[in-house]
Amino acid sequence: MASPTLPQIQETTHLSPSLIRILAGNPNKFTLQGTNTYLLGSGPERTLIDTGEGKPSWISSLKTLLRSENATLKQALITHWHGDHTGGIPSLLNAFPNTPIYKNSAQNHPSYDSSQYKFLPITDGQIFRVDEGITLRAVHTPGHTTDHICFLWEEQDALFTGDNVLGHGTAVFEDLSSYLTSLNKMKGLFGGMAYPGHGLEVRDGKSKIEEYLRHRQLREDQVVQRLMRGSQNQQEVNVKGGEKSWTLMELVRSIYQDVADTLHPAAAGGLLQILMKLEREGRVVVVQGEEEERWRLVNEGSGRGGSAL
């Protein structure tokens, strides 16, 4: 179940005369209230963004909505390969077998048989027209995944952000440097509403992205500060060539003290990305401890082109 602290989201919500959110029926600690899918248009042909993970309630809601609107699907657009956004494709094609499905080809779900799913490509800047007043421009925004696409609703100055920006909390990512580049790119695209892959819509999407960028800088600063002082277990550590160092999980437990232990593995992924970014910048190194790898700041004059800040 989704966290009780999150606001409730109805199974279907008319967000505007031309936009309906359909919840995918898959709430959990990672998907929040569930994955958002969006049905755009007011005419006889509609465009769908994402397909959820294949819960029967989702395809039932979609079919009921289209029937009540006397409409059918023109096309489906996929933001990225994760199963909670693509898992509904089989039931979608079973219900609407002639629906073209567009997806960036940079990355596919590992369970996909390319002979089974014939995606049409999405390229950066590609235009999708739904009906009068709805023009979607695809924007390649890697970071959460390599293939991640956002969709700019040009007439509304709004952005469908996929999983790069969420309605609540912060997002996870595969590559921090790419993610930060994409956030800055997204920030310059629009000034209105953000429609995320999870959680409620965000009225000031640009401010939310700026909040994300500040949060990522805060996390990086926290990592550097911890590395400067060394871990609580430092006295017991024998690290070749380094005095102040931390294991990844020591950093996680220190920085995420107010987060449930069950979420620490997910947090570790984000901190590892920060450490890898700092390593690429020549600011930290990884060294082998007695039992596992440890991270430490680069000392001034070490030949790595960095400093201990």
Automatic annotation (TrEMBL):
One of its GO terms (molecular function) is metal ion binding. Residues 34-198 form the Metallo-beta-lactamase domain. Keywords: Hydrolase, Metal-binding, Zinc. Transmembrane segments: none annotated. One of its GO terms (biological process) is secondary metabolite biosynthetic process. Pfam families: Lactamase_B (PF00753), WHD_BLACT (PF17778). Its cofactor is Zn(2+). SMART domains: Lactamase_B. InterPro entries: LACTB2-like_MBL-fold, LACTB2_WH, Metallo-B-lactamas, RibonucZ/Hydroxyglut_hydro, Sec-metab_biosynth-thioest, WH-like_DNA-bd_sf. The keyword Oxidoreductase does not apply. Belongs to the metallo-beta-lactamase superfamily. Glyoxalase II family. This is Metallo-beta-lactamase domain-containing protein. The lineage of its organism: Eukaryota, Fungi, Dikarya, Ascomycota, Pezizomycotina.
